[in-house]
Amino acid sequence: MLRATLLMFLAMSLIPAGDTAGKLLSNNYEVHPLWIAWSRFALGALIAAPFMPRGTWSVLRNPKVVFRALLLAGGISCILTALRTEDIANVFAAFFIGPLLSFTLSAWLLKEKVTWAQTALLLLGFCGVLLVVKPGFDYSPGLGFAVLAGCFYGSFLTASKWLIGVAPARTLLLSQLLIPAIIMLPVAAVFWPQLSLPIMGLATASAVGSMSGNFLLLFAYAMADSTRLAPLVYFQLIAATVLGWTVFGTLPDTLTLCGLVLIIGAGVGAATLRR
Asked: Which residues are listed as membrane-spanning (predicted)?
C-alpha cells in the first residue's frame, strides 16, 4: 500500500505540472490552447504506441471508443483554455466538478448504487465548486471553461466505466490519445506557432507530465484497491495550489480556499463510504 500511495502522490503532482507547462506556453509564448491540447495528444500517442497490445487498431473504429476519446479532447481543450486566464488552483478546483458529475451519471446511466450519505457529500462538493466559481459575483469566462472541462471529464470517467471489458486498458489509453490527435490536427494547423526550443520543451513537458501521471495512476491502481486510493486523487488540488504559488506567485482567496476544503472533504468522504 505504501508504494501505491507514493505512486499516487507522484502521479497527482505530475498531472498539474503538465498543465503548468501548458499555462506557461499560453501566457509566456502566446501559443493557442488548442495547439497545446493537440501537441499533448500527439506526443502522448507517439510515446504510448510502441507499448500497445495486438488488436489495438481494430478497437479504434468502435464508435463508443471514439465518443469516449472526443470527451477527453473536449476536456483537455477546455482546461487549457481556462488556464490561459485563470490561476491554476482555481481551474483545478472548478474542474473537480468532474468526479461529482461522474458519480451522478454512473448512478443514473449505469445503475450504480448510491446512498443518501453519498448524495449529501456530492451536494457538499458542488457547494465547494460554487464557492470557487462564484457565479454572478466574480465569475469569469475562464472559470466557465474550467467547469465545462470538468463536465467533459466527468462524462469521460463514466464512459470509461461503460467500456470496461471492451478493450484492454493500454488499448483504451492509446485510443484517447491518438483519436483526438488525428481529429484536432486541422485545428492545430490553423494555430501552429513559430516553433522554438522553449516552445518545444514546454510542449514536451506538458505531454510527458500528463502521460506519466496517467501511467503511474494505472500502476498504482494495479497495486491497491481503488476505493483506498480514490481520496488521494484530490491531492491534485494541493499540488496545483503549490505550483500556482511557486511558479506564478498566486494564491487562492479566502472563499476559494473554503471551496477547496469542501471539495476535498466531500471527495474523501464519498470515497471512504464506497469501501
From this structure: 33-53, 65-83, 89-110, 117-137, 143-164, 171-193, 199-222, 229-248, 254-273
Cβ burial, residue 265 (10 Å; 0-12/13-18/19+): middle
Pick from 242, 211, 80: nearest CA to 146: 80
Distance, in Å, from the CA atom of 149 to the CA atom of 95, rounded to the nearest integer, reads 6
Domain residues for the domain of 193 are: 2-273
For the chain, what is the domain count? 1
Cα 97 to Cα 115: distance, rounded to the nearest angstrom: 19
d(CA 69, CA 76): 11
Residues in contact with 224: Cβ distance below 8 Å, sequence separation at least 6, in sequence order: 1, 4, 5
Structure confidence by residue, pLDDT tens digits, 97-123: 887 788 788 777 777 777 788 778 778
| Cβ neighbours, 10 Å, residue 228 | 17
pLDDT tens profile 83-104? 999 999 889 888 888 877 887 8
